[in-house]
Amino acid sequence: MSIRIAAVVILLLLAFGAAAALANVADVSPRLLAQYLEKRVDGHNRVIADTGRFVARMMRRADRGESVVASAYPAWTGAHRGSTGNAALAPTVGRAVIVSTIGELRSALETALPGDQITLVTGNYQLSGSPLVLSRAGTADAPILVRSSQLGDVTIESTLLEGFQVAAPYWTFENLILRGACKRDSDCEHAFHITGDGQHFVARNLVVQDFNAQFKVNGKSGAFPDDGVIERSTLANSRARDTDEPVTPVDIVAASNWRIEGNLIADFAKAGGDQTSYGVFAKGSAAGTRISRNVVLCEHALHPDSGRRVGISLGGGGTEVAACRDGQCIVEHQSGLVGDNLIAGCSDVGIYLNRAARTMVTRNTVLDTAGVEIRFPESVADLEGNLLDGPVRVRDGALLRETDDLGTAAAWLYVGYHPVRAYFVDAPTLDLGWRSSPPLRDSGGAASVDLCGVARGPRSSYGAFDDIRRCADH
C-alpha cells in the first residue's frame, strides 16, 4: 500500500470516527454532516477535496441508501382524478354560471355574487395577459365556487407570475388542474396568491404543478387572509425550479388558522439561489396552523445532487420584521399542530421548528430524512407517538417535551443501521406494509384519525398509520 493510499485510509477512518462521535453528542445526521464537509473541503488541494467529497458520499450513502428509481405517486393520497368532489354539497342559492373560455371565466369572476357556482366546461384553458383577480366577496352561507364537474376535465395553463389573486373572502376552488407553463421558472411564481381580505379560502381536489409556490398566503395593508383550507390536493413539480425565489408549495406568512390536510406534496427542489426549499411552512407571527394527514415526498421523481429540502416547517427560514403580523416576530409561529403526516425522502430534516412556540408534533412517520430539528428559545415542542427514521435535534435553547416516540439515534445511521425502515416491507419504494408485527403504543384513549382516515383504537401503531392498505379505501 502506498503512503498516499494509507494516508487516505487513515483520513477516512478518522473522519468516520469523528462523525460518529459528533453525531452521538449532537444528533447530527450523516446527510447534514456530509453537506458541511463538502463545504469545508471546497477550495482545498485536490487530495483533501477529493477525499472529503468521497467521505461525504459514503456518509450520505450509509444514511440514505441507494437511490431508487421513482414509481408513480401513491394513488391513495392527494387529488383523485375523476372525483366529483363536493358536488352534492354545491350551493343551492345563487346562480349556476357556465364558462367555456378564459374571457368568460374572467368576466364571471369579476361579476360574481355570493352563492355563485362557476363551472368550467371540459377543455384546456390558456391563461396569459393579466392575472384573474378575485375582489368580489362570498359569505359564510354562500361562498363562491369555481370548479369543473370532475377532476381531469379542465386544465388551466398559466404563463403569468400569478394565476389567481384572491383578495376577498369565501372563495372555493375544486376539481381543477393548474399548470405553470413559463419558459423561465422565475416567471411562474404562484398559482394562487391569497392576500389581505382573502379569508376562508378553500382549495379542494386540485392538481397544481410547476410553480415556485403553488399557494402563497400573506397579509396586506393590515388585513390577513386567515382560516384557509388546502385539502386533498396534489402539489408537485416536474423539474427542479431554476430560480432564486422561494420554492415552497404552501407558503404561509402572517396568516393564522390555516388547515393543510390530506394533500400530496412532492418534488419541490430548488436549483437556484440558496438551493433550500420547503414542502410547507407557516411563519411571520402566524398561529394555529394545522398540518395533518399529508404525504410529503421531498424527492420522489426528482433526485438533485445538491441542495436542501425540508419537509414541513413552522417558522421556515425566518421572516423580515416588516412582513410579520405583529410587526415584531417575537415568535415565528405559535400553537401549531404537525400530526399524522408521512414525510419521506428529504435531503434535510423532515420537520423543522424555528421559533415555534407551543407546537404539537404527534404521530408522524418520518423516513429517509435528517429527522426533526427544534431551534431557538422561543420553540417549545411536545413530541408524542412519532415513528422517526432519524434523530431529534434540539438547538440554541429550544425546549423539547418528548413522550413515547420511536426513533433512531444518529450514530446508528453512520454505520447504515436503520431499525425504523426495517419495520416496513420496502421503505425506499414506499411499500409501507408492516414486515411483521407493527410497533404498538397505548394511545391514552384520545380519539384520533390516522393518515388513512381510520379511527385509532386504544392500542395503535407508532407513526401516521395503523395499516397503510387502509389508505386505498378512503
List keywords for this structure.
474 residues, alpha/beta, Pectate Lyase C-like, 2 domains, 12-stranded parallel sheet, 10-stranded parallel sheet, 39 strands, 14% helix, globular, disordered N terminus
Structure, explained:
With 474 residues, the chain is an alpha/beta fold. The protein folds into 2 domains: 3-64; 87-405, Pectate Lyase C-like (3 Solenoid), CATH 2.160.20. 14% of the residues lie in helices and 31% in strands. The chain is built from 5 helices and 39 strands. A 12-stranded parallel sheet has the order 1-2-5-8-11-14-17-21-25-29-32-35, covered by helices on one side. The chain has a 10-stranded parallel sheet with strand order 3-6-9-12-15-18-22-26-30-33, with no helix packed on it. Strand 36 (424-426) and strand 37 (431-434) form a beta hairpin. Helix 1 packs across helix 3 (46-64) and helix 2 (30-41) runs antiparallel to helix 3 (46-64).
Q: Which strand order does the major sheet show? A: 1-2-5-8-11-14-17-21-25-29-32-35
User: Biggest sheet: strands, sense, closure?
Assistant: 12 strands, parallel
Structural class: alpha/beta
Distance between the termini: 61 Å
Shape: globular
Oligomer: single chain
CATH architecture name of the largest domain: 3 Solenoid
Record field, number of beta strands = 39
Report the top-level CATH class of the largest domain: Mainly Beta
Query: Which regions have little confidence, pLDDT < 50, spanning 5+ residues?
Result: 1-14, 18-25
Binned, the helix content reads 10-25%
Question: In DSSP terms, counting alpha (H) and pi (I) runs of 4 or more, how many helices?
Answer: 5
Number of domains: 2
Determine the CATH topology of the largest domain: Pectate Lyase C-like
The radius of gyration over CA amounts to 23 Å
* CATH level-4 homologous superfamily of the largest domain: Single-stranded right-handed beta-helix, Pectin lyase-like
Beta-strand content bin: 25-35%
Mean pLDDT: 91
